[in-house]
Amino acid sequence: MRHFRSIDEVGTDGVTRLLDLADHMAEVNRRPNPKVPALRGKTVCNVFFEDSTRTRLSFETAAKRLSADIMNFGVSSSSVNKGESLRDTIETIAAMGVDAFVIRHGSSGVPWQVEQWTDAAVVNAGDGWHAHPTQALLDCYTIRTALHRTGGFDGLKIAIVGDVKHSRVARSDIRAFTLLGADVTLVAPRTLLPPTVDVPVTTDLDDVIGDVDVLYLLRMQRERMTESLVPSLREYTARFGLTPARAVALPEHALIMHPGPMNRGVEMAVDPGELPGAVITQQVTNGIAVRMAVLFELLGSGTELEDDE
Amino acid sequence: MTNSKQVLGPDDVRRAVTRMAHEIIERNQGLDAVALIGLQRGGVWLAETLGSEIERIERAVPVGSIDASLYRDDIGLRPVSPGSVSRIDFEIDGAIVVLVDDVLFTGRTVKAALDAITDYGRPSAVQLAVLVDRGHRELPIRPDFVGKNLPTSTDERVDATARGVDIS
Asked: In chain A, which residue's Cα lies nearest the Cα of B116?
């Protein structure tokens, strides 16, 4: 594996391999001293052109627990404000000796461009509306551990609810969940669906909620309100939010997931702390393990020599 | 397995393991604080077998397993495929850890395992038990308990399981 920019780039085998590797990383994270020397001497650079706290911190923690050095590049404090181009920025950082770029950018496809300007590995931490593959990986890992689905997601019913159209999380999740064998249904107002989808779609959450194994709520981005894609947040909550009445309708074993940051009172109209199926904090914890798996797979796994004993 | 030659049969392995169990008990009188840790992957079955032999002869000791792939000194030079997740559900601080592996070769895996174990705690001592010592050490590491010393050339392959020890 050279880069990790989309779920399709690594395929089912790659996803499964990274999830298996994440088990080892999760074991490291459970230790009193959660650090291993695996990536000593490697340098990872976070390049975030969009705001992020959890993803950036998660990658930073993952790199540190593998003993890699981490540099953080934030746009607001950089020469981008003086008009430096993306290519110059990347080439400048690459010249300092970087083994992996973790990149987030508002435009789709940037991680593919970046690859042409550097020999370093490229990890996509979110590009435009396109993809957020490490989020999909941590979501898969959370489902796999919480529901004991090590062998795959065959027959698992997952409903993804909300603004699918503008969500790179949804796009990567749909790919990853489907690759692992799950039956994914999208639940959203028609204005918040992409023009083409290859999984079933419904506008009636109550129709599916009694029969899901995983309820995945997407963040309702408030700026969509001003684009008149939904009539009002209150109406959105009434039709697509997780309300107390819907929480009761969920099957007992069902997981409730959210990529964060959460809009309480909008898509999440109950206190997730009171839902036994909510695994939202586990998602955050697991994010570190899967990102360690990705960094280790890209930087720590060679191909030349045979097993020695 | 065309060019494979069996050097120990299943009965030889069983006898060697029983003898090693006796030696471990003898060396660590009373077995106080002794714990066995098998190295992923090949050492795990041996640690478990030694554990049940020791229990049969004397008394039960904790048995765990450790995967040292994140501690190897050749990371980046070869494909790394970790075995099962490390499982150490006992206290390492103050324990006498007997590291168990199937084949001792360069010693680099053992070195990685020593590094890994000290991340879990500070054992009062670490001993090394291997079913086969095939020589060609690249580090100053020597086993405390050996099933069989087996001279080999570096390009040979040694497989050691409960079914026997084969060279190919």
From this structure: A36
How close, in Å, is residue A28 to chain B by CA atoms? 9
For domain A133-283, which CATH number applies: 3.30.420.270, 3.40.50.1370, 3.30.70.1350, 3.40.47.10? 3.40.50.1370
CB–CB of A37 and B70 under 8 A? yes
In a domain, B3, yes or no: no
A302:B79 CB<8 A: yes
Cβ contact (<8 Å) for B80 and A301? yes
Chain A positions touching B158 (Cβ under 8 A) are 309
Find, in chain B, the residue whose alpha carbon is nearest to that of A34. Answer: B119
pLDDT for A2-50, tens place per residue? 999 999 999 999 999 999 999 999 999 999 899 999 999 999 999 999 8
Please name the residue of chain A whose CA is at the shortest distance from the CA of residue B41.
A309
The answer to ipTM > 0.95 is: no
Q: What is the pLDDT of residues A157-185, one digit of tens each?
A: 999 999 999 999 999 999 999 999 999 99
Instruction: Identify whether the C-beta of residue B84 lies closer than 8 Å to the C-beta of residue B67.
Output: yes
Residues of B in contact with A300 (CB under 8 A): 75-76, 80
Q: Which CATH number fits domain A7-132+285-300: 3.90.1170.30, 1.20.1560.10, 1.10.1660.10, 3.40.50.1370?
A: 3.40.50.1370
Note whether B76 contacts A23, CB cutoff 8 Å: no
